[in-house]
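[Discussion] Sanity-checking designs against the backbone

I'm trying to build intuition for which residues belong where. Below is a structure token string of 331 positions. I'd appreciate it if someone posts a full sequence so I can compare it with mine line by line.
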């Protein structure tokens, strides 16, 4: 089976493109071999065949598949950077952005973007070259599995594969450029139409703004006239209210004065009544005093008379006379 394998040759100084062709060829070949070996092992399994199958499987899973994944990642990164370069190129060539190219800040921004893309692309290329050297070293492992003759590939075949790959890449590049160019033309047309539309909208907006300002000015003038008229009416109303308030205050003052005069007269009448009552009271008191005095004098006179008739019993001089009187009264 090993003698029937296709010769594969990486060649000295393998490039990344050659490494890609090398990986694709061996990925396809080992996949076919693993399926064939697995079917053969089911029929006849020997230790040598099993060890060879395990070596192929380990090489495929541990080495070949990771390299294929890493190389595809680098290819995608390179494609993304080249697409960004194309977009930047279209932006530089855009006639609608010619005015912005004289701006120093804009120029520095474009230069910074291009330098950043260049550094990224350089890093990707370095990784691709490094990976190409590592892939080239896999020929030794493949020689251990398939033999040295199986690892030789004709220069014409690898040249044809690379030329086919370059042709496909070129076709894809041209197609992408046509797509980008068409997209760019559509963007320029869209921007132009959008600019015209914006100018028309701006013109219409300014006209509408002028009409609105005129209407607003007219409305403000009318509002001012209304406010002035309302202010005059308000002043007239205030003067009328002021006159009414003055009349009301005058009436209140007259009412207050009338009330005060009434209160003053009532106080005078009350004072006169109080004076008369006081005089009457004094006269009554004077009469009562006279009466009391007369009654007192009468009482005193009566007591004097009684004292002559009834002497003091505690007086020793009158004691005999008093006893005589009592005897007479009892008799």
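Best answer:
Here's mine. Compare freely.
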């Amino acid at each position: 089976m090993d003698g029937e394998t296709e010769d594969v040759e990486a060649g000295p100084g393998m490039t990344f493109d050659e490494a890609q062709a090398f990986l694709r060829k061996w990925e396809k070949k080992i996949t076919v071999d693993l399926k064939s070996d697995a079917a053969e092992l089911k029929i006849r399994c020997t230790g040598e065949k099993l060890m060879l199958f395990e070596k192929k499987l380990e090489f495929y899973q541990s080495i070949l598949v990771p390299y294929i994944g890493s190389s595809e990642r680098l290819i995608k990164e390179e494609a993304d950077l080249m697409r960004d370069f194309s977009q930047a190129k279209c932006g530089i060539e855009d006639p609608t952005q010619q005015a912005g190219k004289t701006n120093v800040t804009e120029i520095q921004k474009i230069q910074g973007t291009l330098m950043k893309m260049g550094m990224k692309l350089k890093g990707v290329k370095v990784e691709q070259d490094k990976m190409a050297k590592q892939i080239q070293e896999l020929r030794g492992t493949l020689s251990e599995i398939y033999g040295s003759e199986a690892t030789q590939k004709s220069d014409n075949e690898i040249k044809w594969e690379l030329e086919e790959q370059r042709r496909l890449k070129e076709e894809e590049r041209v197609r992408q450029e046509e797509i980008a160019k068409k997209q760019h033309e559509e963007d320029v047309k869209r921007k132009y139409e959008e600019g015209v539309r914006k100018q028309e909208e701006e013109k219409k907006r300014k006209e509408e703004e002028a009409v609105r300002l005129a209407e607003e000015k007219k409305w403000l003038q009318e509002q001012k006239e209304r406010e002035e008229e309302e202010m005059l009416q308000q002043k007239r109303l205030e003067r009328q209210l002021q006159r009414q308030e003055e009349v009301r205050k005058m009436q209140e003052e007259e009412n207050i004065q009338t009330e005060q005069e009434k209160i003053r007269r009532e106080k005078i009448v009350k004072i006169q009544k109080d004076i008369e009552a006081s005089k009457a009271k004094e006269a009554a008191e004077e009469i009562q005093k006279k009466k009391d005095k007369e009654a007192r004098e009468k009482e005193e006179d009566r007591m004097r008379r009684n004292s002559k008739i009834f002497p003091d019993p505690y007086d020793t001089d009158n004691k005999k006379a008093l006893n005589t009187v009592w005897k007479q009264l009892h008799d």
